[in-house]
Amino acid sequence: VQPAVPAFSSRLLSYGHDPDTSRRIERLGTTRIYARGRTLFNEGDDAANVYEIVRGMVRLYRVLPDGRRQIMGFLSDGDLVGVAVAGRYVYSAETITAVSARFYARAKFDRMVDEVPGFARRLLMLASDELRAAQEQMLLLGRKSASEKVATFLLALAARQADDRSACDEVVLPMTRTDIADYLGLTIETVSRALRRLKCEGVIALLSTSRVEILDAGRLEEIAAGEQEASDPA
Amino acid sequence: VQPAVPAFSSRLLSYGHDPDTSRRIERLGTTRIYARGRTLFNEGDDAANVYEIVRGMVRLYRVLPDGRRQIMGFLSDGDLVGVAVAGRYVYSAETITAVSARFYARAKFDRMVDEVPGFARRLLMLASDELRAAQEQMLLLGRKSASEKVATFLLALAARQADDRSACDEVVLPMTRTDIADYLGLTIETVSRALRRLKCEGVIALLSTSRVEILDAGRLEEIAAGEQEASDPA
DNA sequence: CGCGTAGTTGATGAAAATCAAATGTGGTGG
DNA sequence: CCACCACATTTGATTTTCATCAACTACGCG
């Protein structure tokens, strides 16, 4: 029952019921490597391309005039960006690790939506997942406490990483504390303190700055779900 | 540049490039009237139907175990609910006014997605709008102050109502303060105080509990966008 | 081996939540 | 039509949580 981190989560393009279509789709895209900290596009840019992240991680975000930033999601292997957007991008996208991404010219992509049977339907399913994740995130941003937010975040990351690696309970945080804070609607200090609190309660261990071990997954899930939070049954 | 209130905003079903298809779609649905305060479905229910709101307003929400509630959006005339969902509904839907709604059995609806040309594509566009609105809401929930939230909310309502009525600057709030608070991630007291602050600054007038007049739309937009907020240039 | 950036920790402050009345308001029945 | 009731809203006092400000520490890299 773990929600994905909001993003166009998918393995769409390399997926296909029939190999011909898959190959056709593949041929339409161009793969490119980006260094860490590069901009794929900015909010307001003409939405010229659809991107698929092949490897690495990307953040999507918007900023308010005075610099406050909200990260909408982190994208990683297999995720799509920009499918939804017609006209102009409504957020910016930057790499937070080295990234290999394939991109598709919008015109070609749109033609595929019309021509390839089932393609639009499949994109619709992806958008639905995305939407569900976005709503999960609204619940988090609007109603969860700092600890609950961080707990939820760790579990979501863990769930995503469980796909790849073996099901060990070590979670890697490829993004900075600033990114985490801007994703959870907190400050870096509050994120740090929430992690410490979880550590003190024995729920997690901090292996290093960017690695966390989940010691008590059940308890972490309780906290994330907002079951009771404070653990002081004195 | 006014974001819609997150919802499956659409005039989809009654819309059609060709009248035959429209009629066919129409025939598939059943219209029903709901009193105020009724439940269309609950989080976790089998997602048996797709709903189109014909008239009235509906709230979509999720609740945490201890009762904290987050409203994901308010639906009104022409909006769709449940398109995205396969399996089980991930939120609850309740009427906040008397509502006339048409509903479609999922199986039939899904068949249409496959059979009616362009239908999936059109739903995809709706989902995209929805997604954009959800991201706008994440920015609001994560990074805006109480006054900014309320200002944004009033403008979104005004924009939606501008479609129907003439472009007068009176906004009707069909939902309670509790609903507004649960939508903006605030408490009712804070919503009330934010409205008062806007009134004191001369940006709005409170005509009655449920009616607001926008006196200074430009300033309200500045506040909503987070340009500076406090107005105390001594 | 520092140097710079990222992260942690602590002290203080501010915004919003909570608690507690008081005030409106709409609807119902007398 | 009016009085009353239940409930929604406003307003005020206080508390809590998180943000801000300020060192301090750790880590990675040239």
Overview of this protein structure:
- The structure is a homodimer of 234-residue chains.
- Chain A has 234 residues and is an alpha+beta fold.
- The first copy, chain A, is 40% helix and 23% strand.
- The first copy, chain A, contains 7 helices and 11 strands.
- Chain A has helices spanning 19-28, 106-115, 119-143, 146-164, 177-184, 188-200, 217-225, and strands at 30-34, 39-41, 49-55, 58-63, 69-75, 80-81, 92-95, 99-105, 170-172, 204-208, 211-214.
- In chain A, the strands form 3 sheets. Chain A has a 4-stranded antiparallel β-sheet with strand order 1-8-3-6.
- In chain A, strand 10 (204-208) and strand 11 (211-214) form a beta hairpin.
- Chain A binds a DNA duplex (30 and 30 nucleotides) through residues 145-146, 176-178, 186-193, 195-196, 208-209.
SSE topology:
The structure is a homodimer of 234-residue chains.
Chain A lengths: L18 H10 L1 E5 L4 E3 L7 E7 L2 E6 L5 E7 L4 E2 L10 E4 L3 E7 H10 L3 H25 L2 H19 L5 E3 L4 H8 L3 H13 L3 E5 L2 E4 L2 H9 L9
Antiparallel strand pairs in A: 1-8, 2-7, 3-6, 3-8, 4-5, 4-7, 9-11, 10-11
Chain A binds a DNA duplex (30 and 30 nucleotides) through helix 6.
